[in-house]
Design a protein that fits this description.
Strand order of the largest sheet: 3-2-1-5-4
Strand content: 15-25%
Number of helices: 21
Number of strands: 19
Helix content: 40-55%
Shape: elongated
Oligomer: single chain
Radius of gyration: 40 Å
């Protein structure tokens, strides 16, 4: 306390001299005074905490010397009183046993620095003499003396039977204690992990239809966090999408998504995610956020975001989640795999239902209503609807979820709403982030709670017959798997509506060569599309014939869903395809061929080990034909 009082007196004295004489300058004096008081208070706090030692005192002495040199230089008296910088160095060396030899070069340099930076006269001879003098005094002022004393020590004989305890015995005892402590810590860690696993498993099983919500509730209850948002990996692990949320968290945290950055460590990725969360919350929101990545077999399968008002509570919650991260990753990945299997099973059942009940349904509306009801249960969306087209007007037929009309709010190159979409050709529209898409007004997306939306046409001719709309409030909620399900169901629904609309049924779809021949003979007008895979032999040699055959079969199944009514698709023995499009114009056939080439690029050729994947390339040729006498040989290879 006495040293702090002395420092304050020196600062006030310098300030008083500045007021009375004008040296140093008043503008400089009050700033230097505040700085001196600030670090004097800091040094006092360090001393109160018990951290004051010779090293800290040495740094404080250098700071004091710099403060004295700056004031003397600004007052233009440094060349006369530069030796005063010795005072703090001698004080630190005498009272706190700081090394004067270590402080001397730094203290001496403050004279030269002060003379050059704070209004002095530069490197003058007096300044140089003061500098050299301070350096010499510091280097020679303290010499450590080593005193060797001789002392006789009497060693008494040990009692009979008493064993001397050697240093090796103490080392073994310490090693045994360390091993026992490590084993105890490991047992406690395993106990916490097993306990968290049981709680998570019970919560997921009790959650009913939404296991992800049970996982979020268990994470909140076990960690003590105020809010929890659970994210799952989607689109092949390239994106994290919110699956469930519970508790208190900033608005918008459960509707956002994150792209997994490539080439970053886990710590860097978590830093980016937490920075994004902090940008979402309001300015006056003091909620602290932390994230934990969930990994299985080295791959990120999800993420848990924790929210708490205090940083201490957040750190404790993060520690609990880190102990249970392996269990949460296992449950999350397993649940997503079960959901994918369930979706594929229900999708197959739904396609079978569409194919078998189309002819027996009372009306098209009943058929569409059943499809929407079944598909909505599979995909768990906030909105799913089917609309038929009457000119440029959309007529609602079936709805599940929120009664919103997303297409009416969209704008396209040729105009807004359904009319602009039809003028564009009625394409498929997928907005993973509707809030950031220029085609959807942000105010409408917020008002209707639409984070991601898709429009899939229902088509069996040159013009769309209708369209299906799907939306969810979560950004990224419509992943590739759900979009693919929508495409397949809409394609089958289009064929079912075509059969219902036209009554009779002509041969169509995948055909054998003989069936394709008969189909081609029965067509009046249309177009032939020849689809060929370039460098077929090289691909077979590189990837193997099984991988090539699987890729082209997958491509054929996708293109079968895109065939117009009454059209046929035939694969020849050479591996290429011939498509007969019934009653279509050549521009539509060319557009269809371009779509086929784009679809082929989404089918990958994969090696047996799964490491190499390249898109399947396709070359298409289009030719129109009209009524004529066909001279097709019965021996055409197929």
């Amino acid at each position: 306390m006495g040293e702090l009082a002395l420092r304050c007196c020196v600062v006030l004295a310098a300030f008083g001299v500045s007021l009375g004489t004008g040296k140093p300058d008043f503008d400089f004096a009050w700033k230097a005074g505040l700085l001196g008081l600030a670090y004097s208070g800091l040094l006092y706090m360090v001393e109160k905490k018990g951290f004051r030692n010779g090293g800290v005192s040495g740094f404080a002495a250098v700071a004091d010397a710099a403060w004295i040199a700056a004031n003397l230089s600004n007052a233009h008296v440094l060349q006369h009183y530069g030796f005063l910088v010795l005072a703090p160095m001698l004080w630190a060396a005498g009272r706190y046993e700081a090394e004067a030899a270590s402080m001397a070069p730094l203290v001496a340099s403050t004279i030269m620095v002060g003379s050059n930076l704070f209004g002095g006269e530069g490197f003058t001879v007096p300044v140089m003499m003061h500098t050299i003098g301070v350096l010499v005094v510091g280097l020679l002022g303290q010499q450590t003396r080593i005193v060797v004393q001789e002392k006789e020590v009497f060693i008494t004989a040990e009692a009979a039977g008493e064993k001397t305890k050697t240093p090796s015995d103490n080392g073994e005892l310490r090693a045994t204690y360390r091993a026992l402590r490590q084993h105890t810590d490991e047992l406690q860690r395993r106990h916490r992990k097993d306990q968290a696993m049981v709680k998570l498993f019970d919560s997921v099983n009790r959650s009913g239809e939404n296991p992800f919500q049970g996982l979020a509730d268990a994470a909140k209850e076990g960690s003590g966090a105020e809010g929890v948002v659970v994210f799952g990996a989607a689109d092949g692990g390239r994106r994290l999408v919110a699956e469930a949320a519970t508790g208190k968290f900033p608005v918008g945290s459960a509707e956002t998504h994150f792209d997994l950055p490539a080439g970053l460590s886990d710590a860097q990725a978590r830093h980016q995610f937490e920075k994004r969360f902090n940008a979402i919350k309001a300015e006056n929101d003091g909620t602290q956020v932390g994230t934990a990545l969930l990994k299985r077999n080295g791959r990120v399968v999800g993420m848990v975001a924790l929210f708490h008002q205090s940083m201490k509570g957040l750190e404790a919650a993060l520690q609990v989640v880190a102990d249970a991260a392996d269990s949460m990753a296992h449950l999350l990945a397993g649940q997503r795999e079960r959901d994918a299997e369930k979706r594929r099973l229900r999708e197959t059942e739904l396609l079978y239902t569409v194919a078998t009940t189309a002819q027996g349904s009372e009306s098209k509306q009943n058929l569409v209503s059943r499809v929407v009801r079944e598909l909505g249960e599979v995909l768990r969306l906030d909105h799913l609807a089917v609309n038929f087209l009457e000119g440029a007007e959309a007529v609602p037929v079936a709805l599940r979820g929120l009664p919103v009309r997303p297409v009416d709010s969209m704008s396209f190159a040729y105009g807004p709403g359904v009319g602009g979409w039809l003028k564009l050709g009625g394409p498929e529209v997928v907005m993973t982030d509707a809030l950031a898409d220029d085609r959807f007004p942000k105010t409408e997306a917020v008002k209707k709670r639409i984070g991601s939306v898709a429009v899939v046409p229902i088509q069996f001719g040159e013009e769309p017959y209708g369209f299906m709309t799907a939306a969810t409030h979560r950004v990224g909620g419509l992943d590739n798997a759900r979009i693919e399900s929508l495409r397949i169901v809409c394609a089958e629904l289009g064929h079912a509506l075509a059969r219902h609309e036209q009554g009779g049924r002509d041969p169509e779809g995948l055909m054998t060569p003989k069936e394709f021949q008969e189909c081609l003979k029965g067509m009046g007008n249309g177009c032939l599309v020849y689809l060929d895979v370039p460098r077929r032999e090289e691909l077979i040699e590189t990837y193997g014939k099984p991988a090539y055959d699987m890729a082209v079969r997958k491509f054929a199944m996708r293109m079968r869903a895109k065939l117009p009514t009454g059209s046929g698709l035939c694969r020849r023995d050479e591996g290429d395809y011939v498509v007969a499009l019934r009653d279509v114009a050549e521009p539509f056939a060319r557009s269809w061929a371009n779509d086929a080439a784009a679809t082929a690029s989404m089918v990958a050729l994969t090696t047996p080990d799964g490491r190499a994947r390249i898109p399947l390339a396709l070359r298409a040729k289009v030719a129109a034909f009209g009524p004529q006498k066909h001279l097709i040989s019965e021996k055409t290879s197929a």
